[in-house]
Amino acid sequence: MKNILYTIIFSFLFSFSVFSEEEMSCEKTWNDYYDNLPESEQAPSDSLFKSVMIDDCHNDYKLMIERTKEMRDTEMDAYAAGDYATAYKEFKILAEQGDATAQFSLGMMYHNGEGVVQNYKEAMKWFRLAVEQGHTKAQHNLGWMYYIGEGVVQDYKEAMKWFRLSAEQGTEGTVRSQYNLGVMYENGEGVIQDYKEAVKWYHLAAEQGDVTSQSILGYAYGVGQGVIQDKVIGYMYSYIAAENGDEAGKNNRDVAAMQITSEQLAKAQKLARECVEKNYKDCGY
Description:
Elements: H1 9-13, H2 26-35, H3 46-59, H4 61-71, H5 75-80, H6 84-96, H7 100-112, H8 120-131, H9 136-148, H10 156-167, H11 175-187, H12 195-207, H13 211-223, H14 231-243, H15 247-257, H16 262-277
């Protein structure tokens, strides 16, 4: 089974970090804050604030809120409005002062050619500066650029290095790196092919709700690839992936349903419901 890494740049550039204070996630913190704003202060561009400001939440949710207020009428509003010249100017001021989020944002603008001539080497420069401060999404982006050879010679081992640094943070924002490590171990890219290690990383990504990883686990358990074959657990993961809209998961679910008894089917569906209720953690028997 040959899997393909995420290819839509924004889908991996904007992933969220996790904040934990009284078991509250960064995303919930943002939503609680945003829902209490007057309608006059809410705007479509706020989805962009969320994707950038969530980084601050990983360290301090109050900092996230304060910086959101500061940036609302400057770089992020300019970026959302397509005024890349202003956004670039404001981001660069902060980036040169050592702000990791701004450094990451500049890297994105260079990567995507927004307000500047597309320049992968310059993008890599700013991502590296953000990485020096532990920015997990920048770590992931460096891994991606080495994986596909953007601005550098393609190097799977170097890609593996950066994906691993990001993935080992264990936060919600590292799910793409966890998935990508699973792909690389499964396909033997930069490492010796190791299905068991691939399953390990797919599990970590699946626990964060990554539907592709959930679907892959359904297949892996169904055929016994990297794990002891267990068609009940295989159906469970395929069922979850299907419910989350994954087409491969739907197909695997339907195939798995024909390979187990009605009692096993009922058990697998019960396990799937329990898994969802537990936010995909500690799923199974």
